[in-house]
Amino acid sequence: MSSNHRNNPAFWLVIFAFFAILLYLLRSILLPFVLGGLVGYLFTPLVNKFTKLKINRTTASCLVLLLIVIIALPALLALCYFAEVQINNFIATTPLYIDSLTSKISSLLSTLQESFPALSKQSIMEYLQNNLSQTTKFIGKILQKIISGSFAFFNILSLLLITPVVAFYMLRDWPSLIHHIDELIPKSAKKDVRSQARAVDEIISSFIRGQTSVCLLLGSFYALGLSIIGLDLGLLVGLIAGIISFIPYVGSITGFILSLALAVAQFNSISPIIAVVMVFVTGQFLEGNFLTPKLVGDSVRLHPLWIMFALLAGGVLLGFLGLMIAVPLAAVIGVLTRYAITRYKQSSIYKN
User: Fold this and answer.
1) Cβ contact 206:297 at 8 Å
2) Residue numbers of the domain that contains 310
3) Would 169 be classed as within a structural domain?
């Protein structure tokens, strides 16, 4: 390949487009490899610490994977058990919730009709029932699509079988992989590429490790708070709200709306509803003032709106795989954009 081709921006745009199309076409089989690569990336520092203790890297990789299984598997089984118990209890009491919610809405509509005689209570109730029916059908279609698509049996089996293998090889061969990539970089560009790669690595590692800690702590706080209040499905809703908190504001808003709806249907007094509001207000205060500043920090340099856009775009284009790679791609684009702006401001175009 001639140097003229390598220096032509159009050439690199074609290469990028080729890999983007390939990624889209292979999206259904890439999830285990991406997840395994993520595990390898996150736990390579731990393997490096073991190797400093004169432990063979292959043995160290096996030890790290064993530790992950020992910690994650019991936690996952316990979570599934408690979630199943809460869902079964919720299903058993759903008719009571529907009757309670209908009665409260009917009472509210009667009060509104006294103040606004033009309102028709019957038409409003019919409107709400029709919309509830349509919403239920819509949610059912989404769940059906998820079960038959992203979480089909083959994909679950491939996750269980392929992900650990990919993670093991990533952990074992990480130094040699980085060395081979480094050898491919043109010597004239090594300094710039290495500095930008270190910046990307710092952002990705800070965000993933820090945000994972924030999500786990927030999920535990919400689950514990809602369970203490006595909210049915409080444990499950709290954990879900914490887990999806990596999308700015989405986790807390989703958890708050679900918890408030459940509280209105379940309780006949205002005190538990106020308690639910206080749980989420406190959680947001802790996240904004303590958890995110301490665990994620300012070094991430990824604006919440940019993260939100990247995650939503990745989810729409590539599903769960898109969610996995959205933040790393956003970090790379952010670093390269800042580098391009710096070079532009140093150029004669800007100075003239």
Assistant:
1) yes
2) 192-346
3) no
Residue 199 lies in a domain: yes
For tokens 């249907």, name the residue. 265
pLDDT at residue 278 greater than cutoff 80: yes
- From 314, 91, 296, select the one nearest 210 (Cα to Cα): 296
The token pair that represents 302 in the structure block: 């990824």
The CA-atom distances, in angstroms, between 307 and each of 39, 74, 241, 315, 328 are 21, 31, 17, 12, 10
Answer whether residue 46 is part of any domain: no
Amino acid found at 17: A
- Return d(Cα 132, Cα 34) in angstroms, integer: 38
Q: How far apart are CA 155 and CA 11, in angstroms?
A: 35
Half-sphere exposure of 157 (CA within 13 A, CB side): 3
**pLDDT-derived band at 155, boundaries 50, 70, 90:** low
CA separation, residue 260 to residues 102, 110, 127 (Å): 16, 22, 22
Query: Which residue, among 24, 42, 40, 43, has the nearest Cα to 32 in the 3D structure?
Result: 40
Tell me the percentage of the chain whose pLDDT exceeds 90.
13
Contact criterion met (CB below 8 Å) for 27 and 314? no
- H helical segments located in the chain: 3-6, 9-25, 27-52, 57-115, 121-148, 153-184, 190-229, 234-243, 250-266, 271-286, 304-318, 320-346, 348-351
- Evaluate if residue 143 carries a pLDDT over 50: no
Asked if residue 328 lies in contact with residue 203, where contact means CB atoms within 8 angstroms, the answer is: no
Residue 123 maps to a domain: no
CA distance 120 to 278: 35
Residue entry with tokens 């089909």: 152
For the chain, the domain total comes to 1
